[in-house]
Design a protein that fits this description.
By secondary structure, the protein is mainly alpha-helical. Helix content is about 45%, strand content about 0%.
Length: about 210
């Protein structure tokens, strides 16, 4: 870490005003909403900092990540343009620091009622009786659908006679000429031998 890390413990640094301001800018650049109030970003930053100090690993990761933003080649992160700041965040998007910020911001920022109001989400409805009586089909954010009945004539298309015969028998007799002979060669020879063998006289026949 830079001078901040050498003069202050990581936990103390995360409790500083500079860490808070840096994290607010990171969140605003990563999740830009012109209509969201500053308080939404500030409350999200407070929640993330409180979460970071719960473990030593995340304390070090977040402290190092925020502190490194003060010594970028292009200058301090707070002084970068929106485009420059965005490109830097893209360059560190796979770091443990940014993964922590991104994942927890999604769960925190968009769970604030003040953000719901701006984005048009009414929130949960269970405690209010459900949506059935609270605008179940309220689609005022979509244009009115155009519903028209067809008033023209229906036309029929002649397809002509079928190119094959149609039978009404649900179980037609199979064409045995087309059935495959599944007997083995030995079976066929045995059957042929039986046909060629002389017929033996029966019990009621008299031989001379």
């Amino acid at each position: 870490m830079t001078s901040h890390a050498t003069t202050e413990a990581p936990r103390r640094f995360l409790e500083s005003e500079r860490a808070h301001v840096l994290l607010v800018r990171v969140i605003r650049i990563a999740f830009p909403h012109d209509t969201l109030p500053d308080s939404a970003y500030e409350r999200t930053a407070d929640s993330l900092l409180d979460l970071a100090v719960r473990t030593n690993r995340m304390t070090l990761a977040v402290a190092n990540g925020l502190d490194s933003l003060g010594s970028l080649p292009a200058g301090d992160f707070l002084g970068l343009t929106v485009e420059e700041a965005f490109e830097h965040l893209r360059a560190i998007e796979r770091t443990e620091f940014f993964s922590f910020v991104r994942g927890n911001t999604v769960l925190t920022l968009y769970n604030l009622p003040e953000v719901w109001e701006v984005l048009g989400y009414e929130g949960a409805s269970v405690e209010k009786g459900g949506y059935l009586t609270r605008g179940f089909d309220d689609l005022d954010w979509l244009p009115e659908p155009r519903v028209e009945e067809y008033s023209g004539e229906f036309s029929r298309v002649e397809i002509g006679a079928l190119p094959y015969a149609v039978t009404t028998d649900p179980t037609p007799e199979p064409d045995r000429r087309t059935l495959p002979d599944r007997r083995t060669a030995a079976d066929r020879r045995t059957a042929a031998d039986r046909r060629r063998a002389p017929k033996r006289p029966g019990a009621d026949e008299v031989t001379l």
